[in-house]
Design brief:
Structural class: mainly alpha
Number of helices: 4
Radius of gyration: 18 Å
Number of domains: 1
Largest sheet: none
Distance between the termini: 32 Å
Shape: elongated
Number of strands: 0
Helix content: over 70%
Strand content: under 5%
Length: 141
């Protein structure tokens, strides 16, 4: 069994990675409506940037899933991390498909939901983690 300081360092590294990737994900998500609006303003390159950003966003979203699973494995209480990361990936995959298909009736509301979900992920990730990995909270009897 690794020493407690090594475990703490490992969990801290996982948490820092999760925070950094979540913040990058949120930045990319927030850039999407800006790029879409820029393209509506007549900038032809903006729609290409919107599509490229969507592809990068999907890749970054895919990175969130294993980080969420590792974070959940830490104390088994943060079950929201892998579920929210997976839900965002599925929503963004669907968003990419409907965007390229031109189905804006689904594309716009789904985009708003993705922004809200990404913001929720960042807020939850930035909350202070429990100090002892592997410890469960006592249940009230």
């Amino acid at each position: 069994m690794p020493e407690p300081t090594t475990l703490r360092r490992t969990w801290r590294t996982i948490h820092v990675l999760l925070v950094v990737v979540s913040l990058l994900h949120l930045a990319l998500v927030c850039a999407q409506p800006v790029l879409a609006g820029w393209s509506l303003d007549g900038a032809g390159v903006a729609i290409d940037l919107h599509g490229t950003n969507a592809s990068i966003l999907l890749t970054v979203s895919l990175l969130l899933i294993p980080l969420g699973v590792l974070w959940w494995h830490r104390d088994r209480r943060t079950v929201w991390a892998p579920w929210l990361a997976t839900s965002l990936f599925v929503a963004e995959f669907f968003q990419l498909q409907v965007g390229y298909s031109g189905i804006f009736v689904a594309h716009l509301p789904l985009g708003v939901a993705i922004v809200i979900g990404s913001l929720a992920l960042v807020v939850m990730v930035l909350r202070r983690p429990s100090s002892e990995p592997g410890r469960r909270q006592p249940t009230a009897t």
